Amino acid sequence: MFTGIVEELGTVAAVEDQGDAIRLTVAATTVLDDARLGDSIAVNGCCLTVASRDETSWTADVMQETLDKTSLRGVVPGDRVNLERAVTPQTRLGGHIVQGHVDGVGEILARTPSEHWEVVEISLPEQLSRYLVDKGSITVDGVSLTVVEVSSASISGGASFTVSLIPETLARTTLGVRQVGDRVNLEADVLAKHVERLLETRPEARP
User: Fold this and answer.
1) What tens digit of pLDDT does each residue of 83-131 get?
2) For residue 177, how many other CB atoms are within 10 A of its CB?
3) How far apart are CA 105 and CA 43, in angstroms?
4) Residue 90 belongs to a domain
5) Total domains in the fold of the chain
C-alpha cells in the first residue's frame, strides 16, 4: 500500500528485455535507505518487488501483465520515474490509499499554465469513468491528486479529467515534464471500487 506522495525521482538505469517480461533497474538514493529484497516500491504508480539491489540502484522483474496494462513497456534508460516505498504503520497518509495496481493508461491532452499552478487534462479510459468525481482522488503516475473536473467529451472525443498541479508537484515529480501525447498510469480510488462491488452483491431488500 502507498499514499501517492512521491519520495524521489529515480532514473532508469537499464531495461533487460526477456521476451515476456523485462528486468528493470532504477538508480535511486532515498528509497534505497532501507530497501530489502522482497520489499515493494512503486514506480510511476506500479507496485514492483525489489529482486536485487546495490548501493546505487535496485532491480525488479516486470511481468507481461504489467507491461500490457501500464506505461512501463515504453521506459528506456535515462527516463525519470516517480518512486515511493510502501507505507508503514507510522507513515502519515498525506495523499490517499493507493494500491499500486494500475487500472488503465491515460494520455495527456493539454497543459494550461498559470502564474502559480498548471491545469493538466488527461484522457480517461471508459472503464474508469464511473469511479471519478469532481474533487475526488486519482493517482497519476503514482502521484495522489485531486480531480478538478470530469468531462464526458474531451478534445480527443472521449472522456477526460483535469487536475491542478502546484509548483511542488511540478518540481518533484515527472508530471512537471510530461508533454501532450505522453502516456500516464492511472489508478482509481480503491474505496470507490469496493463500494461498487458491495452494491453489486447486496441482497435485494426484503419487505
Assistant:
1) 999 998 888 888 898 999 999 999 999 999 988 899 999 999 988 988 9
2) 10
3) 14
4) no
5) 2
Check: CB of residue 138 under 8 Å from CB of residue 115. no
pLDDT given for residue 103 in this prediction? 95
Q: Is 134 exposed, middle or buried (0-12, 13-18, 19+ CB in 10 A)?
A: exposed
Instruction: Tell me the pTM.
Output: 0.90
Burial class (CB in 10 A: 0-12, 13-18, 19+), 79: middle
Q: Are 53 and 117 in a shared domain?
A: no
Whichever domain contains 108, its CATH number is: 2.40.30.20
CA distance 23 to 165: 32
- Which contacts of 12-20 are long-range, i.e. CB under 8 A and separated by 24 or more positions? 12/75, 12/76, 12/77, 12/78, 12/79, 12/80, 12/81, 13/57, 13/77, 14/77, 15/75, 15/76, 15/77, 20/63, 20/64
Is 140 a domain residue?
Answer: yes
CA distance 67 to 56: 25
* Average pLDDT of span 64-75: 94
For the record, the C-alpha cell of 34 comes out as 532501507
Measured between alpha carbons, how far is 193 from 120 in angstroms, rounded to an integer? 24
23 located within any domain: yes
Domain extent at residue 45: 8-85
